[in-house]
Each structure stands twice: as C-alpha cells, then as structure tokens.
Amino acid sequence: MDNQYDIIVVGGGHAGCEAAAAAANLGSKTLLITMNMDTIAQMSCNPAMGGVAKGQIVREIDALGGYSGIVSDKSAIQFKMLNRSKGPAMWSPRTQNDRMLFSREWRLQLEQTQNLDFWQDMVVELIEENGTCTGVKTQIGVTFKAGAVILTNGTFLNGLIHIGEQKFGGGRAGARPSIGITEQLVRFGFESGRMKTGTPPRVDGRTLDYSKMEEQPGDENPTTFSFTNTPKLVRQRSCFITYTNPKVHEVLETGFEKSPMFSGRIQGLGPRYCPSIEDKIVRFSERERHQLFVEPEGWNTVEIYLNGFSTSLPEDVQYEAMRLIPGFEKARMFRPGYAIEYDFFQPTQLKNTLETKIMPGLYFAGQINGTTGYEEAAGQGLMAGINAHLKINEKDPFILKRDEAYIGVLIDDLITKGTKEPYRMFTSRAEYRILLRQDNADVRLTPISHQLGLANEERMRAVEQKKANIQQIIDSFNTTSISPKEVNDYLNENNSAPLKQKVKASSVVTRPNIKLSELSQLSKKLASELKNHNEEEIEGAEILIKYDGYIKREKEVAEKIMRLENIKIHDDVDYKTLGSLSAEAVEKLSQIKPKTVGQASRISGISPSDISVLMVYLGR
User: Which of 155, 176, 240, 243 lies at a CB distance of 3.0 to 4.6 Å from 294, suitable for a disulfide?
Assistant: First the structure.
C-alpha cells in the first residue's frame, strides 16, 4: 500500500468529492477516504440541485472546473429556471435529480480523475506533529500521511438520529456515525457545537392519487447547469404540489409531547429557512395549510420525496397525518422522516482559505462549518481542495471576493460572522447580486480557473468567444436605428409609449416588457445579426443592455468598498493596546483576526468608529 499522499480528503459527500477532484486535477496526489464507496455524493435529503442562490453556486463551481454542474445535468429528470418573473439577478437554475444516478455519475467522474485514489474506511484520529496536521489514522489501524488534510464529515460527527422517543447513532439513515474526531479537535482547542437538520418520509408513489394535486412540469426549453456540452433534457418528470390542512395539523399535534425537538432531547439548532412541519405548525399557527412538494426520486423508481414535511415525530403519527393530505389517502411509507443531530465547528476558526487557524495543514469544508445544503458544501470543498494544493506547493492562496462570486460571499460570511444555525445561501446575502448572475458565472470565473490550471484551453476559448459574440450583438443594437413606423405597433401591444422619431435600437430594449429577440424581428439588419447567435448569447446581450446603468453603479460601489480589502492587517496586532476600541471590538477582532479592514468592517458588533480607530492605527 502507498501511505504517503499530498492531500487527504476525509468524507465522500458533496464537499469531499469537489475537494478531491480539485486537488487531483491540479496535480496533487490525492486520497479520498469514505466510509462507503457505494454512497459517494449521496443525496441524503432532497433529490435536487440548485434553487434560489444555490443554482448560482452550482454554475460558479462549474465555471471554476468543478463537477457538480456536469453530474447534475447527467442525472437530471427535470430542469426549471426559478424566478423568471423577476430580474435576472434573481434567476436561479434548479434540477430535480435521479438520486441513484447522481451518486453513480459522481463516482464515474472521480474514478476517471487522474491522481486520485480511494480508501473505504472510517477516520478515527488526526496525526499531529509539532502543531501541524500531517495525516490520519483509520478504524482498521491504517495510517496515511499527507501535506494537508481536508475534513468534510457532513452530519456524521457524533451523529444522532431521532424518531419520536427513539434515538440511535447514525450519520444518516442506514449509516454509522463518526466517533473520535470531535473529541480530539476539542483537545486541540477547537470550539465545537451541535446542529440539527431533518428529512421527510419517503413514500411509495404507486399509492398516491396525483389527480388531487397540482402538476409542476419542467421548463418547455430546459437548459443546463454546466457551461460544457452536457446534454439537455428531451423528456422530464413532473413534480406535484399538495397542501396540509387543519386535520393534518391536529394529528401532528398529538405527537408533540413525544417530539424530540419540543421535549428538549435535541440540543442543536435547526435550519431557520427549512423548518420541520411541527415547527411550522407552531410558528405559523394562524395558517390553515402549508405547501408540500411531491418530488420523484428518479427515472426508474416509485419512491417519492415529500418536500416540506420534514419531521421527527413518532412514525405512527407521521403515517396517520400523512394519509390526511389530499392525494395521500392510501399512501404507504418506505421509511419515516427523522431529525439528525451532529457536531460542527465555528467557522470563525478558519482562514479565508478554509485552513484552520489553530492547526496548519488542516482544512474544514461543508456541514462541519455549520452550513446546510449540497451546493454550499460543494463550493467550500472546491475552494478547500484548491487552496490545500496551492499551500503545499508554496503558492499564493486563492480567495474569491464578495463581488466576484456567491462562493466568496459564503466563505466570507462564515469566517467573519460565524453562525449559530445552519447557514443557507440566499440572493439577499450578496450585496452585488446584479454582478453575480447565473448567466455570467463563466465570464466571471473561468479566466481565473484557467490561470489556476483547472479550466482547459477549450473552455477558455469558449468563454472568450461568448464574450465577443455578446458584444457583437450589443454593438449592433447600439449602432442600428429603428423608426416609429417599424416599431410603434409592437410598442403599443406591449403598453409602451410610441416613438416620435428614429432612435437607437438599444434604447428601446431598455424599456420594460420589450424583448430583444422580438424587437430584432422588426428590423432586417437586426434580424440578420441575431441569426448568427444562440439563445444564451442573445439573453446575455439583452441583460447587459437593459441593466447597463445598474451594473455600472454596482461596480463603482464594489470598487469603493473593496479599497478597504486592500488595507491589510497583520496577525500580530494586539487589539488590547488600542484604547479607543470598544470592548466588544477588542474581543471579536482578537478572536477572528481579520486579514483586511474590509473583513473587520463586516464582523458583527464592529462599529464605524472602531474601523476609524483601526484606520488611524494603520496610518490611514
């Protein structure tokens, strides 16, 4: 056996897979250790990728050379672009996925990745030498050494599953928990905590009456996550919507006294934005019904995921209540819903590379950092894998700023603010979301990925061609005039004021309800120009024309704010000697040790006057 590696990744979930792939593709000899090779990248909760803000992360991962977008496309059974009725900053791609196919495609991708080895075992101990992490020991007694170790343990660290009054150890249904690592890290000085998440019952789709539900088909013209040539769906499976009702709520309430959440047996905090059904009933008692999404688990299975009905109530209460839901009168369960409690570590203990501050060579990524969601985990894994490779090769770290990517917002939020509940990404968390759209993730990030060595020449040329083609469309609309005779009937149909004289076509595109593709059909010159371009390029040009003023203004704001990011703060600053700082500022700055004044300004409890004191101290 070969026991010496450049990088070891512990955990084969979404974070671990992206971390291992990134490190190996950059040239590091990498070992992925997972407890079960058959459940690599398993979708432990809902069988879907993307959604609001999360879809942007998947596209960013793809633009940076990760695999999540490719695997999602290859295993998709439905595609939807969410929030189409809103502005393009809110458009968010989402796929419904075949759970078994998703895991299989991930394993195939990894097995075809050079420099990557696998080992099925449980890591029970980290090897520490002179304060640095240098390897791991496994349950069967094997030792592996490496220049860096990335922990992506998900919900497995001392995982505890709750169903009513029953509780038992597990990282997810049917899987053992991971024991020993938390205790060792606490001895090293790390601060740990407990968090909770949950999952709904799985149901036999053959026993459901879909005629009582609202069908939710996929998009008529589905696109893809990946900017590569992954196939678009030619057929799709529908999801369905149904609702709870007062009778469902009454039955659920009969089990509250046995609820591990209400009885206090669960100590960890659950996700605020994905509460259990019992939590919804209590928090929103004025509501007579709650929406439920009936989601198929794949192409060739009858298993159904009841999204919105996450619960840890006793299984008999779950079953009785579920059969009062319209369409579920004869439903049979494959297994009940459950809650899971697990250990996490405050992410303020990390550098912006996701390396721990306490122990060099040790990186955390995914739910171990207090996040929730496949996409957030995958984004962290990618960044940890890249930075671990760069560090062992003595290269500068790779840091995404808040105006460059949602992944940058995610990591900066975690390391700067920490989290007391499972962190979930939203578009509202990104102050520069007009710049961070899903359609331009490749333009933003592929050039950086190409410099790193992840994106190949072919991908770089494709991005350059896309940019040139979009600019060609914009130039054509900026230079082509359109007359009242050509366009006024169209403007009237769309409740837009008629023209009184010729104007540039681009000025008409900026109006609400006016589509660039429709307007082009009124001008032979413009129609001829668009014939040479695909839908993605046409849509990209329309967004840049319509939102040009907003984009420029947001870039200006970002540039001003980012000046603070260029003012570095050394790790050895003794904040206690700065008498004018507030006591809270001294405490939090000493704990987090921000790298820049910009990061310091985003720490909760740090006031503008504290930043002024810091600027004076730094000679600014």
Answer: 240
The better pLDDT of the pair 239, 429 is held by 239
Helix, strand, coil % over all residues of the chain, rounded to 5: 40, 20, 40
Q: State how far the Cα of 203 lies from the Cα of 206, in Å rounded to an integer.
A: 9
Number of Cβ within a 10 Å radius of residue 74: 21
Reference 414, options 344, 339, 362; nearest CA is: 344
| Residue 288: how many other CB atoms lie within 10 Å | 11
Both tokens assigned to 546: 């319509």
Dihedral of CA atoms 226, 230, 234, 238 in degrees, nearest 10, equals -40
Cα-Cα end-to-end distance for the chain: 56
- What number of other Cβ atoms are within 10 A of residue 493's Cβ? 10
- At a CB cut-off of 8 Å and minimum separation 6, what does 196 contact? 261, 266, 268, 269, 270, 339, 340, 341, 342
pLDDT in tens, 133-179: 999 999 999 999 999 999 999 999 999 999 998 999 998 988 899 98
- Please state whether beta strands 214-216 and 239-243 pair in parallel, antiparallel, or not at all (unpaired): antiparallel
Asked whether the beta carbons of 60 and 405 are under 8 A apart, the reply is yes
Q: What angle do CA 3, 148, 370 make, to 5 degrees?
A: 120
Query: How far is Cα 607 from Cα 584, in angstroms, rounded to an integer?
Result: 10
pTM of this prediction exceeds 0.85: yes
pLDDT level of residue 343 (50, 70, 90 thresholds):
very high
Looking at residue 518, its amino acid is E
Nearest to 469 by CA among 517, 388, 535: 535
Rounded Cα distance, 281 and 274, in Å: 13
Q: What are the residues whose beta carbons fall under 8 Å from the beta carbon of 567, sequence distance 6 or more?
A: 596, 597, 598, 615, 618, 620
pLDDT band at 620 (very low <50, low <70, confident <90, very high): low
Q: CA-to-CA distance for 430 and 68, rounded, in angstroms? A: 22
- pLDDT higher than threshold 70 for residue 422: yes
